[in-house]
Amino acid sequence: MGMGNQTYVREFILLGLSSDWDTRVSLFVLFLIIYMVTVLGNFFIVLLIRLDSRLHTPMYFFLTNLSLVDVSYATSIVPQMLVHLLIEHKAIPFVSCAAQLFFSLGLGGIEFVLLAVMAYDRYVAVCDPLRYSVIMHGGLCTRLAITSWVSGSLNSLMQTIITFQLPMCTNKYIDHISCELLAVVRLACVDTSSNEIAIMVSSIVLLMTPFCLVLLSYIQIISTILKIQSREGRKKAFHTCASHLTVVVLCYGMAIFTYIQPRSSPSILQEKLTSLFYAILTPMLNPMIYSVRNKEVKGAWQKLLGQLSGLTSKLAT
């Protein structure tokens, strides 16, 4: 493809994490195990919520959405990265790169909005428990979930279109583990100030706005918890929010570190490690956090395991 004296690329080359073969094989084994744990962990969380009627509540409806987002986000990046760890020519076609950017960016945006929605759910549960079932009815939960998916997808579509309209000229080496937004924008052979402004605006809309809503929700939640007279009551209210708050710190912390200041962004290695953490560890940790720190989920696991144990005993006899 050409226009004037400029030549446009048909594919990109991802430089990845390392050029050493032994290191790449070790990383392949490690990332494959983590990815399998991620897929299985999120699958079992969704299955558990579907099977146990006690978990058919707004909180676990949103957790189902979060698990689907996590496993989809990891799948948009990790399988291709695993393949590239075992081959020398780490090429990704132009269209595939655009698709990867769209899905990873979109799913990340969906997660940010979804975490804000989950914070609102926790706010209602702690601050207005008597009207919780009236406020968080099925119709509202569905609309909030749809809003999360649509807003993240629309932002991603806009960013993908304006990014891949940039002339890349002969720049085809992406110094990253995937077709990440900032890494692709850096390839452009024209001024990218308008793109950086667009990234900043979208960061404010889909990252900082939900983050501020989460912050406001937790200010109200903490204020309400401190007014509870009994120590046991305060402990119970805190545990209601502990899992979500832990996930919020992980997800928003990494994203703010990466995206909120494109012009003064960290080193390339830091960007790679941050993206790696967000793509591999966060989706794996989320189901673990909710399983370990949540009494209802632990109780559902014990019930399911008990049923499976009983069924196995019957089959054995």
UniProtKB/TrEMBL annotation:
Q: Does the keyword Cell membrane apply?
A: yes
Where exactly are the transmembrane stretches of this chain? 25-49, 61-87, 99-120, 197-219, 240-261, 273-292
Which keywords, in A-to-Z order, does the entry hold? Cell membrane, G-protein coupled receptor, Membrane, Olfaction, Receptor, Sensory transduction, Transducer, Transmembrane, Transmembrane helix
A Pfam family (short name) is 7tm_4
By its UniProt entry, which InterPro entries does this protein fall under?
GPCR_Rhodpsn (IPR000276), GPCR_Rhodpsn_7TM (IPR017452), Olfact_rcpt (IPR000725)
Query: A single GO molecular function, which one?
Result: olfactory receptor activity
Q: Which GO terms describe its cellular component?
A: plasma membrane
Per UniProt, subcellular location reads as:
Cell membrane
- Stated role: Putative odorant or sperm cell receptor.
**Name the UniProt record assigns to this protein:** Olfactory receptor
Q: Which organism is it from?
A: Panthera leo (Lion)
